[in-house]
Amino acid sequence: MKTLVLFKNNLRINDNPVLYNGSKNNTILPVFILDEHNIKKKLGSASKYWLYNALKSLNQSLNNKMLFFRGETLSIVDELIKKYDINKVVFEETFIKDDMSLQKKMESFLKKTNIKYHSYNCTLLWEPYSVLKNDGTPYKVFTPFYKRGCLGGKEPELPLGRPKEIKYLEYDNNTNISDLNLVTGYKWYSKLDDQWDISEKKAFKIFTNFLNDGIFDYKKGRDYPSKNCNSKLSPYIRFGMISVNRLWYILNDLKFDKNIEHFKSEIGWREFSYYLLYHYPKMEYKNLQTKFDNFEWENSNEKFDSWKKGKTGFPIIDAGMRELWQTGFMHNRIRMVVASFLVKNLSIDWRLGEAWFWDCLLDADYASNIAGWQWVAGTGSDAAPYFRIFNPILQGEKFDSNGEYTLKYLPELKPIPLKLLQKPWENLEKINYPDPVIDYKLSREIALSKYSAIKTYTEK
Ligand SMILES: Cc1cc2nc3c(=O)[nH]c(=O)nc-3n(C[C@H](O)[C@H](O)[C@H](O)COP(=O)(O)OP(=O)(O)OC[C@H]3O[C@@H](n4cnc5c(N)ncnc54)[C@H](O)[C@@H]3O)c2cc1C
Questions:
Q1: pLDDT tens digits, residue range 67-102?
Q2: Could you give the C-alpha distances from 162 to 16, 60, 120, 166, 202, in angstroms and in order?
Q3: pLDDT, tens digit, 9 for 90 and up, residues 210-227
Q4: Which residues, judged by CB distance below 6 Å to any ligand atom, belong to the binding site of ligand 1?
């Protein structure tokens, strides 16, 4: 059978159900289509850079047989079916609203034209519709979702390994990744080339190195940005360069340990993010808790700009924002602190922060990013209470007590004594570093008074 294998968000050879099943007893046409017609949220700049490199790597693994197109999926698929006499189309099952409506359209089109088709879940351990409470409604709180719904439910699919053999259709490949226009113009991304090795092989190597080292102190160490306790696998996971099922079963084979269980639960948070977006798609643009809809954000351009550029005058915030700019990544604890600062102290709508992350993060993930922002803003489900305001001075002193992380991104602060590193304005000697963009205590009081009617206050 001549089978069209459509890649989307799972750019790997190993444990890829679409490729594995598509190539079983078939000759295949491997295709990637960049379709921006059918989605509201276009890829951000950093994602395009990652995607470009991930496709390059996948294409190499497929003997440079991939075809690349930019345009409307249905018309391209239709053309390919006719041109290559295709009998079957296989593709990824999707869980995000716009992708799901495109998938539906494709399925009804293929049905009408009498072409066989099959979709496979390549992205999640548990399909969101398969995890429901006893009364048939979705969970809203992480712990019962994960413990009862996921761990207490069906086992995730076992990983499939690599296809035994891949036979390609005979064709002249006159397409090129550059036709996708993913990386054009000013080469801002060249700074990332030396920092990231974007390949499936590297993803697995990072994971095995992590299993030999960082994971042993993961539960505690994951909060400290200068410790090497986090896997940094997120962009590889986002683009499906390593499958979560493969990770899951390798972890399951290890001896039970609280660190391993904690790491698995973080993968569970990713599942929960997709789950929430699946069941509550309005979360994409709206507060899940509607009582926040009338909140009056200050939305000062000047303050927003200082945050984006890492010039707020609060070292842990600025270090995080510069890490993002220089590396396309940011440590999880720091994501929480900078997001809290933007929303609660600068009074800027979480959607603006989410959009900035979406553009700059290499791991920008539709579900995890929105869920992460709504969690910090306190507007989501099972979210941090609105009045949990991360104090950037205390957070910096606690989680970067030797200043290693802060000074890596703000070397201009090296002359400051460590005890004043997170409050450089108290240092008598003048240095070339911005004054604080806000009075922290005052901004916290304003936030508290604005929200006192909505929630109760806790400070960490
Ligand atoms: C405001 C905000 C925005 C975020 N935006 C994104 C995003 O766009 N893309 C993204 O992948 N993650 C996002 N996260 C979640 C988390 O910060 C990153 O997944 C994590 O920092 C990636 O680093 P790591 O691979 O070293 O994680 P590890 O600690 O090694 O965790 C392993 C994997 O588990 C998953 N994971 C871990 N923590 C979370 C979490 N809280 N939510 C969802 N998945 C998680 C990731 O796939 C990660 O690679 C966001 C968090 C916040 C607070």
A1: 999 999 999 999 999 999 999 999 999 999 999 999
A2: 8, 15, 15, 10, 16
A3: 999 989 999 999 999 999
A4: 222, 230-234, 237-238, 266-267, 269-270, 273, 332, 335-336, 339, 357, 361, 363-365, 368-369, 372-373, 376
**Regarding the domain delimited by 124-160+200-279, which CATH topology (the fold level of the hierarchy) does it fall under?**
1.25.40
Distance CA 164, CA 146 (A): 34
Tell me if residue 150 falls in helix, strand or coil.
Answer: helix
Distance CA 409, CA 413 (A): 9
Q: How far is the CA of 376 from the centre of ligand 1 (A)?
A: 13
Q: Is 2-123 CATH 3.40.50.740?
A: no
- Does residue 456 have a pLDDT over 60? no
Report whether 374 contacts 133 (CB < 8 A).
no
pTM: 0.97
CATH 3.40.470.10 holds for 290-459:
no
**For ligand 1, atom 34: residue with the closest CA:** 267
- Cβ-Cβ contacts under 8 Å for 238 (sequence gap 6 or more): 9, 47, 50, 362, 363, 364, 365, 368
Cβ-contact 348, 300 below 8 angstroms: yes
DSSP state of 196: -
- Where in the chain are the domains? 2-123, 124-160+200-279, 290-459
169, amino acid identity: L
Beta bridge partners of 459: 389
In this structure, are residues 330 and 361 in contact, taking their beta carbons and an 8 Å threshold?
Answer: yes
Residue 82 confidence (pLDDT): 97
Protein residue with least CA distance to atom 49, ligand 1: 234
Q: Which of 211, 242, 248, 270 to mutate to test the pocket of ligand 1 (most atoms within 8 A of CB)?
A: 270
CA 160 to CA 314: how far, in whole Å? 48
The three-point CA angle 258-262-267 to 5° equals 150
CA 315 to chain centre: 25
Atom 26 (ligand 1) nearest CA? 232
Nearest CA to ligand 1 atom 6: 369
Alpha carbon of 266 to ligand 1 centroid (Å): 8
Q: Tell me the CA–centroid distance for residue 273 and ligand 1, in Å.
A: 10
